Amino acid sequence: MKQDEGDLESLVRKRLRGLRLSRGLSLDQLADRAKLSQSTLSRIENGGRRLALDQLVALARALDTTVDQLVESHVDDVVNMPTIDSAHGLLRWTLRSQPNLFVVRQRLTAPPPANPDRMHAHPGREWLVVLSGTVTLLLGQRRYRLEPNQAAEFPTMLPHAVGAEEGPAELLGIFDTDARRDHQRGA
Q1: Is the domain covering 83-186 a CATH 3.40.50.1360 domain?
Q2: CB distance 40 to 31 below 8 Å
Q3: Fewer CB in 10 Å around end: N or C, the chain?
Q4: Cα–Cα distance between 37 and 60 in angstroms, integer?
C-alpha cells in the first residue's frame, strides 16, 4: 500500500498527538521538551502547519521514539506468517518489531527427560506460556507444573527441559537472541 505525502503527514500528526496523550503530556509540556512554542505544536498536530524535519526530530526525541517509527507507513505486513519446521513439530515467528526475539509454538507429547544429563543450559533467557494441556518444566533441581495460561520466565544458564504431563500440550516460547541461537542448533 503506497501512501501519498498528505496521507503520511496526516498519519504522523495522529501519531504525535497519540503519543503525547498516551504519555500524559500536555501541549505545553511536549512543546517545552521539544523546544517549540505551544502554538507551533498545536498547529502541527491540527494540520495548520507543515511538519519540518528539524521539528520532527525534536518531537521524536521528546516523545522517546524515533523518526522512523513516526513515519513508518507499512500497514500491509500486519499478519506475520510462521515458518514451519515439520521435522521438529514447530511453528516459528520472527517478531518484526523486536528482531532480537523469536517465538515458537510447539506441541509436546513426551514428558521431560528423566535423565538430568539430557537437560540443556546455554546463554540467554526464555519465556513460555502454556496454551493447552499441562507442561512440566525442569529448572535446575526444581520441577514446575504449568497449566493453560500460566507462564514461566527463566535464565537459560540453569539446566532446563520441558515436556508434556498427562497427554499432549501446546506452548508458546519466546527466546532472546542467545537462547534462539541454541534452540535453532538443537532443533
Answers
A1: no
A2: yes
A3: N
A4: 16
